[in-house]
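Why should sequence recovery work at all? Because a backbone constrains its sequence more than one might expect. Tight turns favour small or flexible residues, buried strands favour hydrophobic ones, and helices have their own preferences. The token representation captures these environments compactly. In the example below, the structure is given first.
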């Protein structure tokens, strides 16, 4: 039997928060906690260690970016999927820079939400159509902007050709199994390349690998 995905719902509107929690529960997810603010989100995430946190951007005592930071401090293996009424550029970029894995607007259907939660739990970056391009554009802008380094060369970790190839496919959202099939490698070999790349780049997970790939224009 497939293991239930544990989810915490963070939203300052009780009717919306409880409704989403009920829908997730009915769809077979394990709703382990709900919260309405930055402080409560951090405390409850630490206590329950949810696989996925559905995060609103406007909360009772702050914003979703601050809450994302607090959640990841107490539950570093949780993945944050923003579910917000706002599709403002600033909100989207603040969420991603704070550690969110993806961003959906509340006009998404229930099935789109369920699919997004499953994908987020699997380590994929999920965005409402149009927002992915915004995030990619911002990271490319940062990557191509002149660096203020006083002409001092910045030393970057060196990846092998195979590690770079695997990194590109990770950034496209492919699973280790899909990458193994595409490159005619074993699943274990792909995982070894991913882990080696994480160590070299001093990154924590596949989401951070995806960000790195985008920043480097891979």
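From this structural description, the recovered sequence reads:
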């Amino acid at each position: 039997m497939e293991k239930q995905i544990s989810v915490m719902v963070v939203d300052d509107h009780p009717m919306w928060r409880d409704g989403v929690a009920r829908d997730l529960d009915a769809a077979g997810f394990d709703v382990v906690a709900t919260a309405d603010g930055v402080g409560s989100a951090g405390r409850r995430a630490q206590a329950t260690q949810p696989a996925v946190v559905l995060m609103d951007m406007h909360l009772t005592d702050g914003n979703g970016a601050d809450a994302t930071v607090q959640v990841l401090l107490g539950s570093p293996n949780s993945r944050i999927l923003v579910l917000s009424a706002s599709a403002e550029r600033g909100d989207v970029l603040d969420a991603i820079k704070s550690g969110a894995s993806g961003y959906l607007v509340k006009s998404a259907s229930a099935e789109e939400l369920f699919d997004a939660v499953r994908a987020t739990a699997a380590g994929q970056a999920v965005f409402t159509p149009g927002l992915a391009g915004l995030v990619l554009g911002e990271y490319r802008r940062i990557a191509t902007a002149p660096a203020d380094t006083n002409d001092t060369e910045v030393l970057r970790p060196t990846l092998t050709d195979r590690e770079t190839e695997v990194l590109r496919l990770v950034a496209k959202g492919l699973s280790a199994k899909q990458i193994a099939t595409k490159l005619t490698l074993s699943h274990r070999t792909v995982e070894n390349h991913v882990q080696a790349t994480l160590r070299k780049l001093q990154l924590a997970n596949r989401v951070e690998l995806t960000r790195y790939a985008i920043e480097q224009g891979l």
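A few observations help interpret the result. The domain at 161-215 is CATH 1.10.10.10 (Arc Repressor Mutant, subunit A).
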